[in-house]
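2024-03-11 09:14:02 INFO queue: dequeued item Ligase-associated DNA damage response exonuclease, len=365
2024-03-11 09:14:02 INFO validating residues
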Amino acid sequence: MHDDLVVATPEGLYCPPGDFHIDPWRPVSHAIVTHAHADHARRGHGHYLASHDSEGVLRSRLGEDIALQTLGWGEVVDHRGVRISLHPAGHVLGSAQVRLEHRGRVWVASGDYFVAGDTALHGEVSGDLNATCAPFEPVRCHCFITESTFGLPIYRWPTQASLFADINRWWAANAEAGRASLLMGYSFGKAQRMLAGVDPSIGPIVVHGAVDTLNTAYRAAGVPLPPTFAATELPKAEMKRALVVAPPSVQGSPWLRRFGDYSDAFASGWMQLRGARRRRAVDRGFVMSDHADWPGLQRAILATGAERVIVTHGYEAVMVRWLQEQGLDAGAFRTEYGDDALEDPTAEAAGATSPPTPTMDPAVS
Ligand SMILES: [Zn+2]
Ligand SMILES: [Zn+2]
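2024-03-11 09:14:37 INFO prediction written
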């Protein structure tokens, strides 16, 4: 429609009255960036607008010299008559939803967000939250632009209490048996959630350099993480009890030699699929995602009160059909955003395989 607040263009999502883009994949003059994952935060834009919490990570990834304006949560800035504000998305440090208001219309673009398990919206007591960033905040709007990375009914995350109990049990059993525990997950976001959730009394924690760089940004932003060591700092005898947190790119690399005997595990939402652990060739798969699961997507979308919903990156067709069944005006935007695997450049560099395509997995039920 000609008066839409956000439209899809070859450069990315675009706000015509405000003349700016949201998470554009091609260089533009004015970009609002929802979060610092590589597929949403690209180099080369003239001006960046992002959340205050994302500043450290954005500058470390895009360069200290980018022209960046930051906003606190809920702070409003006017750009050519469009009132812009940012609201927490609960996905990674600084991840924001973008609220746009123009002539009485309100649109919200979600970026990536995390809502799962017992997470309650509308101020009820909440359970499952991402402990490493501000929790997803539902924002009332006329039109909600939602991600759908895990927008299939098979995706239902375990509670974090049971997830971390499983991880701790696995780590403790390995420590007891005298072998290190290698837990692989993406270095920005996933690694910090793993660190914040495990029980550091089981043994020492070693982190890969790529994880350590991001830990520094998280700690600087006030996110509490347990003490960690570089691989070279820990005496060999203590390696046997260590939890090693590293990006998937270390799999099969010489970096692992120093740890001697170890058990390995991979943490990802894709581990929900039968066969995913085997394809990754690891001992254990832990179902852990920084994206909303199927019930989380549904709850988050309905909480906005939006009568119109536009679905981006993920299983657009399935989500659009469900939304239409709820009586909502639903459509999709084609975007160039990736998924978890593509959000970590080190994973790509190491030639890590893409996540499986769930619709083609015979074990899906
Ligand atoms: Zn992301
Ligand atoms: Zn995304």
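2024-03-11 09:14:37 INFO annotate: The pocket of zinc ion (ligand 2) is lined by residues 39-40, 112, 147, 313, 337 (CB under 6 Å).
2024-03-11 09:14:38 INFO item closed
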